[in-house]
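User: I'm writing a tutorial on reading structure tokens. Could you give me a worked example: one chain, its sequence, then its tokens, then a sentence or two explaining what the tokens reveal?
Assistant: Sure. Here is the example chain.
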Amino acid sequence: MSPTKASPIRVLVADDHVLVRSGIVGLLRTSPGIDVVAEASDGIETTHKTLEIRPDVVVLDVSIPGLNGIEATRRIHAALPQVRILMLTMHDEEEYVVRAVRAGASGYLTKDGTASELIAGIRAVSEGKSYFSTPARKAIDRAGQRRAGAEDPYGELTQREREVFRLVVEGKSNAEIAGILSISPKTVDNHRTRLMNKLEVHSSADLVRYAARRTSLRLREGPAPAGAPASDSAGCGGFRRRQSLRDRRREF
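And here are its predicted structure tokens:
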């Protein structure tokens, strides 16, 4: 939950360079409405302290030992999605920015920015907003434009992966999917892992969001042309099944 106006923003600062971390902490402690509740020097410590203390915002470097900042972000976001993560790093390359956002970061700043920019970023993400430096925003826009021009990765899924995808979106467990498709839970898990890698998602919740986005896009584009396959004309087919999956007996 975001802090109220009466309560300070509780911040954890993570950076492996002591002088840099001390400088950030010193700056934030002089900023009204911000309370530094913990410090960390590596990714594992950052993750453990975040799970224990549950700050409102984690200010985190990408290049941090033990567990890099992007992986730490992914783990924290998966466990505590209400904790907002603001990356503060020397890296402004598109690869790092995009990976951080996909992992769950709400903001991305570089260390050559200003103190006021950092404070504004913390305040913004604590309120549920995003906050990116100009180079980071441009990197995200470039990546988005390329992705928009690329084919939908859903088209790369096999028929069996699409069946598993639809059942996961419907909320079925691996055991339930195995029973419906007459395959083993291990095979279900293998299909699930492959389809999630192809769609670049990391959880069942991400799959549901992907299905919702894709279905919404199809609805905005209008009905599929006559003769289009039923599974494609309804986008992901994630919210209803048009044929009995029990009739499919072949295990890939």
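What the tokens reveal: The radius of gyration is 21 Å. The mean pLDDT is 82.
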